Amino acid sequence: MTDSASDIFSALAHPTRRQILQDLKDGEMAAGEIVARFNATGPTISRHLSVLRQAGLVTERRDANRILYSLVGERLALSVGDFLSTVCPEQIVLREVRKRSSSRPTEIQA
């Protein structure tokens, strides 16, 4: 496993960080909004956000005095997908079967 993948899986190891990623799936959030969702201190959530940022799973941008965080979903999907493809090659086959099945027109039942 590459260092990058190790960083991602380490970041995913903590339930708070996984919840932050789930919260960000609907769009950008301010750091204060993220902190308000947890029963933890601001510095604790800030450390979790830092781990996620270092793993490349979230990005941050400044807007005046606020820091806004966004999910980098494609990085997460590619990393986890690559790992699963390595340890479960049948997942690739199953994915292709599902793609073909969903692209077929459905028959109309009378």
UniProtKB/TrEMBL annotation:
Listed CDD domains: HTH_ARSR
Protein name in the entry: Transcriptional regulator, ArsR family
Domain of life according to the entry: Bacteria
Family matches, as PROSITE patterns: HTH_ARSR_2
GO molecular-function terms, A-Z: DNA binding; DNA-binding transcription factor activity
Record's keyword terms, sorted: DNA-binding, Transcription, Transcription regulation
Limits of the HTH arsR-type domain: 1-91
InterPro entries for the chain: ArsR-like_HTH, HTH_ArsR_DNA-bd_dom, HTH_MetalResp_TranReg, WH-like_DNA-bd_sf, WH_DNA-bd_sf
Higher taxonomy: Bacteria, Bacillati, Actinomycetota, Actinomycetes, Micrococcales
UniProt keyword Acyltransferase present: no
